[in-house]
Amino acid sequence: MIKSMTGFGRCEILKSSRKFTVELKGVNHRYLDVNVRMPKKLNFFETSIRTLLKKYANRGKIDIFITYEDTSENQVSLKYNASLAAEYLKYLKQMEKEFGLENDIRVSALSRYPEVITMEEQCEDEDELWNGLKEALEGAFRQFVETRTTEGENLKKDILEKLEDMEQMVAYIEEHSPGIVMEYREKLETKVRELLADTQIEESRIAAEVVIFADKICTDEEVVRLKSHISHMKVTLGEKEGIGRKLDFIAQEMNREANTILSKANDLEVSNCAIGLKTEIEKVREQIQNIE
């Protein structure tokens, strides 16, 4: 089942007092390009997040947005540095004696001295934190894959329809190419008779000229290869995933054959058909750019 590189996923998980929200969006890209935005508190999980994502996506430019809330009351704690407070008090008393000043220091004043009382963020259990985050990530990643798969099926349907149209154009070119040679022979004989009047026409010369012309406009090889490429692309569309680059290569080969047919075309209808063929191939190539 093919997947598009365009997709969106979102999941919100509430675990006790912890709330994890994960959103991600993806667009087409040649390789897997991941950008993760999250609170600093979760930064040490970035490698794990990228590793987990690789189970769900192979290509695309993917932006991941993570928010985290902890509503518990014990997120921070106060720390009292008794030795530092004693040090401050010792020097204050020393200053009192040296300068004959009144020591008006109070507990409230001493507590405001730098680093006497500090606020510290409580350490959290990394395993619990990761388990909650992972659940939210997997929920968002699964939804992301679902949207990519749905879009991928739409792309597959559209490409198959275009391939059917291309097969009809190739069949038209294959059917009308022999007629172009016969028409050329008739025109050549008529022109030679007009020029030579009653003089005997050498059939061998006419035949040789027709053979040279037929060789110049012959598209048999290109038609056979185009049929093969179309068939190959249909088979590839039935494969599981990671087929984007393969499809792009097939489309390039198809375009090469169509260009050759157009350069050999010596008939207006065949030429127009070849142009239509190139147009459809280009549309297919544009669609393939979105396939993972």
TrEMBL record:
What protein name is recorded for this chain?
Answer: TIGR00255 family protein
Which keywords label this protein?
Endonuclease, Hydrolase, Nuclease
Protein's organism: Faecalicatena contorta
Would you identify the family this protein belongs to, as annotated?
Belongs to the YicC/YloC family.
Q: Mind telling me which InterPro entries this protein's record contains? A: YicC-like_C, YicC-like_N, YicC/YloC-like
- Source organism superkingdom: Bacteria
Q: Which residues form the Endoribonuclease YicC-like N-terminal domain?
A: 2-157
Q: Give the stretches traversing the membrane.
A: none
GO MF terms held by the record:
hydrolase activity; RNA endonuclease activity
Classification of source organism: Bacteria, Bacillati, Bacillota, Clostridia, Lachnospirales
Q: Does the keyword Hydrolase apply?
A: yes
